[in-house]
């Protein structure tokens, strides 16, 4: 998955954010692991994400195993249920998006350019989902904490990028990260199943509109 949730789910659900006993996937993801175990899990999650994007979250586990170059049993040892795997992929992609923010600030020519590039990643995160929305709206208790987790990790990153761009004088200073992310999310609704709708272009126009007039 170049991403992890769709706009209607991200901004439409509540939830306390508490991780209950049934949220085994989230607990496992938070537990410290050895470096080699983290690398192996990352390989599996990258493979699962790619297969989910191509074929949806109901894709056969054997396809994920083949993509990762491991046996099916290895997938099940790491992720006993499909829900565990979906939760882990989601968290993995959220973390990748969150970690990209500081890196882009360090490597981009200007803070505004860093913001623009991060929003591009965020759009990819939102529009490359196939079936994840329906899964996250299910009654599986393991998905309950994901909404708050998404916001807790990504809103501060977006806020830091906005603050940096505002301090550099490139954008107006009265913008809030949550509002911008919600606006981007709303523009992305439907983009995954309507080839005539170019969400990325519209989001690009939105981000361009943040700039101060010359």
UniProtKB/TrEMBL annotation:
It comes from the Bacteria. It holds the Pfam family TetR_C_43. SUPFAM superfamilies: Homeodomain-like, Tetracyclin repressor-like, C-terminal domain. The keyword DNA-binding applies. Residues 38-97 form the HTH tetR-type domain. Keywords: DNA-binding, Transcription, Transcription regulation. Residues 60-79 bind DNA. Coiled coil: none annotated. This is TetR/AcrR family transcriptional regulator. The lineage of its organism: Bacteria, Bacillati, Actinomycetota, Actinomycetes, Streptosporangiales.
């Amino acid at each position: 998955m170049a991403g992890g949730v769709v706009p209607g789910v991200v901004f439409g659900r509540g939830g306390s954010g508490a991780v209950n006993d049934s949220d085994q996937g989230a607990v496992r993801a938070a537990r410290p692991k050895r470096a080699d175990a983290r690398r192996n899990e990352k390989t599996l999650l990258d493979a699962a994400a790619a297969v989910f994007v191509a074929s949806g979250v109901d894709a056969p586990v054997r396809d994920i195993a083949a993509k990762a170059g491991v046996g099916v049993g290895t997938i099940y040892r790491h992720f006993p249920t499909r829900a565990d795997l979906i939760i882990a992929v989601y968290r993995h992609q959220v973390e990748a998006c969150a970690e990209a923010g500081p890196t882009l600030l360090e490597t981009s020519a200007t803070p505004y350019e860093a913001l623009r590039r991060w929003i591009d990643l965020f759009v990819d995160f939102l529009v490359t989902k196939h079936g994840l929305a329906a899964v996250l709206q299910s009654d599986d208790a393991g998905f309950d904490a994901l909404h708050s987790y998404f916001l807790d990790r990504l809103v501060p990153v977006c806020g830091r990028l906005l603050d940096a761009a505002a301090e550099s004088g490139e954008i107006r200073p009265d913008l809030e990260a949550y509002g911008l992310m919600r606006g981007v999310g709303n523009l992305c609704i439907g983009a995954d199943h309507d080839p005539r709708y170019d969400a990325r272009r519209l989001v690009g126009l939105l981000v361009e509109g943040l700039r101060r007039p010359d």
